[in-house]
Specification:
Blueprint (H helix, E strand, L loop, with lengths): L2 E5 L2 E3 L5 E8 L8 E6 L5 E8 L4 E4 L7 E6 L4 E6 L8 E11 L5 E6 L3 E5 L2
Parallel strand pairs: 2-11
Antiparallel strand pairs: 1-3, 3-8, 4-5, 4-9, 5-6, 7-8, 9-10, 9-11
Length: 123
């Protein structure tokens, strides 16, 4: 059974930083594609980043590249999202997720995701 539990969200001022964590069970970090996705108020799911493979290859959405870093610790079964230089457009509920694809309407769907953690960027 896949279980994903996020934490670390909160209120931060523009330009600030936060680190999110996701404790995962029922996944295989070395082979599963693990994602961070987010959902802003009134919007659909948005892919943020992925990490895959024993070499921890990462990829990022253009909107976060250079500001966010996705990493994982296999010993702790935990993955992280370090977020820097946050802006109000980053405000969303952030989820760690597995088995994400786009449907015929180009909406992102993920088979597994946690309960999410709220990130609010505001002065």
């Amino acid at each position: 059974e896949v279980r994903l539990v996020e934490s670390g969200g909160g209120l931060v001022q523009p330009g600030g930083s936060l680190t999110l964590s996701c404790v995962a069970s029922g996944v295989t970090f070395s082979s599963d594609v693990m994602n961070w996705v987010r959902q802003a108020p009134g919007k659909g799911l948005e892919w943020v980043s992925s990490i895959i493979g024993s070499d921890r290859r990462t990829s990022y959405a253009r909107s976060v590249e250079g500001r966010f870093t996705h990493s994982r610790d296999g010993v702790k079964n935990t993955m992280y999202l370090q977020m820097h230089d946050l802006n109000p457009e980053d405000t969303a509920v952030y989820y760690c997720a597995k088995e994400c694809t786009y449907d015929s309407d180009y909406a992102l769907r993920c088979t597994y995701r946690g309960q999410g953690t709220q990130v609010t960027v505001s002065s």
